[in-house]
Recover the amino acids of this structure.
């Protein structure tokens, strides 16, 4: 075993490292890895939201905090940044990207890498960065996750590759291949992309990694008859680390015996893994990470929370304002909407170490700042129980109210009529975006637009605050609201 994916339990990580360093024949330490996408315990805006700050220095600061907290929890390799240029908002993983522009994506990606790695991977507060998903994953047809991407050479070299080239030049320690097929060849087995371009032309000597069980999916792509053939194709393409599937450990020895893979090729891949561990200083300080005292001292500190607040404010986008904002002091505010008091949805997708209790809801914050705030939920995020079950796949972040939608809307209208201004917090659940989270219709889900229409009909000034992991289609909202703020997650 060379790496452990998804480590969070400090005691478990310490036990595993003890086995590797003190009880195995060669004493080679493990690399512990995790998806540290937009913060660790201190959560920052989604990368798509961070892109809206246009502030590379801020992104670097957020990445440094994320690295400090993650490293204290034993993590040595973060599966970030995601550098996929994305132009289709139906694709849920656009939440993890820096958006549609390759120049901005490159600049912010480099800033994140510098924040993670800090110029010295042996530092106790640094983590190795992994540029993903190489390459073209953001152009999946129809915005359907894992779908094919058919990209012309012009678009490939001008739009897709520049952020990755910049990441390699910035010293990213690892690159992750995409799940998708690129012009008919799955990236996991794409020798031209991984070995000829990345290794030989760009001179990348770091780790190339599969995505989660991607090697097994070569069978489903139809280019491998079985796991053994998939192992051969992927290894020959140049991938060093097999994440989760155990294909390498099961099949590489037999492929060597059959002389289809040489021992020299395995040595080369093994050498790159050992070199990564050496760069991280793990041979000298295998236990540098799992330290409960240091973890408590550097996690969710007051300074980190202040930075999160600064980043969240700068990530917000004022889409429209006819003069109603800023809200005047002394106004009676009707705060309406399914996301106004939804603590568990505020962190957004891929905040795996976050704890909902750390977040402050809009209702709580507004009551601190305003004199009179009246609240009504007004609508569910979605009304379909099947969709709700999918959105609550990791843990329950919302429940469907037992009341009929029209009854909830009527209550919200009553609250709105008693106020001077209406602030409506609407949008998606956190798992509406992220991996395997394609949406075919990207307006407000459920009965939320009906709620807004009813609130507009009261004649009260209407401010809409949108929380989402993707750009949403807000045509009606733009025509009728007095102000719109995109707050992301």
């Amino acid at each position: 075993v060379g790496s452990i994916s998804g480590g969070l339990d400090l005691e478990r990580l310490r036990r595993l490292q003890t086995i590797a360093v003190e009880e195995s024949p060669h004493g080679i330490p493990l690399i512990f890895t995790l998806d540290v996408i937009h913060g660790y315990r201190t959560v920052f805006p989604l990368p798509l939201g961070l892109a809206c700050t246009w502030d590379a220095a801020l992104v670097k600061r957020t990445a440094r905090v994320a690295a400090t907290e993650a490293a204290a929890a034993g993590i040595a390799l973060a599966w970030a940044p995601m550098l996929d240029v994305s132009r289709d908002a139906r694709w849920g993983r656009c939440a993890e990207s820096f958006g549609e522009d390759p120049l901005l994506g490159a600049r912010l990606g480099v800033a994140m890498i510098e924040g993670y790695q800090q110029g010295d991977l042996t530092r106790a507060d640094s983590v190795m960065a992994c540029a993903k998903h190489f390459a073209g994953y953001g152009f999946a047809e129809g915005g359907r996750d894992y779908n094919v991407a058919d990209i012309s050479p012009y678009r490939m070299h001008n739009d897709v590759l520049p952020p990755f080239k910049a990441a390699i030049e910035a010293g990213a320690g690892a690159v992750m291949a995409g799940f998708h097929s690129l012009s008919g060849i799955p990236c996991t087995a794409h020798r031209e992309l991984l070995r000829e371009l990345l290794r030989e032309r760009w001179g990348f000597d770091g780790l190339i990694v599969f995505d989660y069980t991607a090697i097994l999916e070569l069978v489903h792509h139809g280019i491998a008859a079985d796991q053994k053939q998939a192992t051969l194709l992927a290894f020959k393409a140049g991938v060093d680390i097999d994440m989760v599937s155990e294909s390498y450990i099961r099949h590489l020895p037999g492929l060597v015996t059959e002389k289809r893979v040489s021992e020299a090729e395995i040595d080369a891949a093994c050498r790159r893994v050992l070199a990564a561990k050496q760069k991280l200083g793990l041979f000298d300080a295998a236990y540098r990470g799992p330290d409960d005292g240091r973890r408590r001292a550097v996690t969710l500190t007051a300074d980190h929370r202040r930075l999160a607040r600064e980043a969240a404010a700068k990530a917000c986008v004022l889409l429209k304002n006819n003069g109603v904002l800023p809200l005047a002091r002394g106004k009676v505010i009707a705060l309406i909407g399914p996301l106004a008091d939804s603590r568990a949805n505020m962190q957004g997708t891929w905040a795996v170490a976050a704890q909902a209790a750390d977040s402050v809801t809009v209702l709580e914050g507004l009551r601190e700042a305003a004199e009179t705030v009246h609240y009504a939920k007004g609508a569910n995020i979605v009304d379909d129980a099947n969709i709700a079950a999918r959105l609550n796949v990791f843990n329950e972040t919302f429940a469907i109210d037992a009341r009929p939608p029209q009854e909830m809307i009527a209550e919200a209208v009553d609250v709105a009529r008693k106020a001077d201004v209406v602030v409506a917090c609407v949008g998606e659940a956190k798992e509406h975006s992220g991996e395997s989270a394609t949406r075919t219709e990207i307006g407000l889900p459920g009965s939320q637009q009906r709620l807004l229409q009813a609130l507009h009909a009261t004649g009260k000034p209407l401010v809409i605050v949108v929380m989402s992991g993707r750009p949403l289609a807000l045509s009606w909202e733009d025509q009728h609201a007095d102000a719109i703020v995109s707050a992301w997650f």
